[in-house]
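>> Question from a student workshop board

For tomorrow's exercise we were told to take the sequence and the ligand below, predict the bound structure, and bring the output to class. My setup keeps failing. Could a helper post the expected result so I can at least see what it should look like? The ligand is magnesium ion.
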Amino acid sequence: MEHTLVIIKPDAVQRGLIGEIVGRFERRGLRIVGMKLMQIDEALARRHYAVHEGKPFYEPLISYITSSPVVVMALEGNDAIEVVRRTMGATNPAEAAPGTIRADFGLEIGRNLVHGSDGPETAAFEEPLFFDKDELVSYERAVDRWIFE
Ligand code: IDP
Ligand code: MG
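>> Workshop helper replied:
Here is what the output should look like for this input. Compare the format with yours to find the bug.
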């Protein structure tokens, strides 16, 4: 089953929205296979966002993501990457569809609460940046057959 990496960003942690955001992914039926509270250091931030190096928002983005603790999650499910992206909403909360996390809790692109891998290669790159193999679990839930057909 597909894996994706989610980061509940510093603004969401500071605003007390960890439970709300985890709950949305959990209710969706995605299986949590890794989860921890951590402080992203500058080196990790630069590696994670290397694709954006040189863009005008890159340095503010590094400051933002390292400014306070985050919660990182590895989620598993059929089409988990796309499902998570759609649950988050558009990058700019002002343009995100109502009902998405970014629309329901955000206003500005530089404070958009949550990160999700944008494709299979990105997910495969990002997951090991944040999780060692022994921090990920493989398990079944009794309810899985009511979620996965
Ligand atoms: P994504 O998070 O929806 O995948 P990306 O384009 O990959 O969006 O950008 C990474 C992050 O960089 C965004 O989530 C947002 O926090 C920040 N960002 C992107 N574009 C801008 C911008 O124009 N101004 C400020 N921050 C931006
Ligand atoms: Mg992205």
